[in-house]
Design brief:
Elements lengths: L7 E3 L3 E5 L10 E5 L3 E7 L12 E3 L3 E7 L12 E7 L11 E5 L2 E7 L4
Antiparallel strand pairs: 1-2, 2-7, 3-4, 4-9, 5-6, 6-7, 8-9
């Protein structure tokens, strides 16, 4: 696994690769669980609140993402890029029906529980 100074890190459930290191290169996932879903939150500062559908990939066990922050100055060419995936237990959660949202620099993935 990558160390805290690396530009890529993983904790087994989440992988993040960014082209410019921020916060020590770590991209922790904050998990919360409700009766009918699992919610993962990932910090992606500077990214627009309106997600571009082509930047996300829904697979049976994970939601992949790729997004760039928006430069405030049009002359700035160095922006951070966030690439990674959030993995879910596919025996419990229906990842293909997950909902995504980006608000205030937080990428949120909500995966509903499978109905038995």
């Amino acid at each position: 696994m990558s160390g805290s100074g690396s530009s890529a890190s993983s904790d087994g459930n989440y992988e993040l690769k960014i082209t410019e290191t921020y916060g020590g290169g770590k991209g922790p996932v904050r998990w919360s669980f409700t009766e009918d879903s699992c919610i993962a939150r990932v910090d992606v500062p500077g990214c627009p609140d309106v997600p571009v559908p082509s930047n996300f990939r829904f697979e049976e066990t994970y939601v992949g993402f790729q997004m760039k922050e928006v430069a405030m100055d049009p002359n700035v060419r160095t922006v951070r890029e966030y690439v990674g995936c959030v993995r879910f237990d596919s025996t419990i959660y229906n990842v293909m029906e997950a909902k995504i949202k980006i608000a205030n620099g937080v990428f949120r993935v909500t995966a509903p529980k499978k109905i038995n």
